[in-house]
Amino acid sequence: xxxxxxxxxxxxxxxxxxxxxxxxxxxxxxxxxxxxxxxxxxxxxxxxxxxxxxxxxxxxxxxxxxxxxxxxxxxxxxxxxxxxxxxxxxxxxxxxxxxxxxxxxxxxxxxxxxxxxxxxxxxxxxxxxxxxxxxxxxxx
Length: 140
Fold this sequence. Notes:
Layout: E1 5-13, H1 23-36, E2 41-50, H2 52-63, E3 71-75, E4 81-87, H3 88-98, H4 102-117, H5 125-139
Parallel strand pairs: 1-2, 2-4
Antiparallel strand pairs: 3-4
Helix pairs in contact: 1-4, 3-4, 4-5
């Protein structure tokens, strides 16, 4: 008998996010991404939608980089979930630059964070390209 996948997602928004990104939609997206990656077991994922000040603080604290970023992912030690912090203002700027809806960019970042939690890495240009391609496949 194969091990089932169960997912618990908690969403926290310190800044406003589009109304279309409901807790249910985000939980479905996380679950679909995990299932697409053939994840098994019990997963707990916290999605935090932050502003520039908070993401900059986290980026400095955990990566010693004193500037904002679009996303930070923190996996749990037991590999069964983690925390994903997404900066809505940076994501909004990215969406405008790429001429896509903000909702798609935020979903793209959610998928990006989940892929990190299941073991994907984007440290090299080749790995980053493969990861970005996989994100597009999942969203499509």
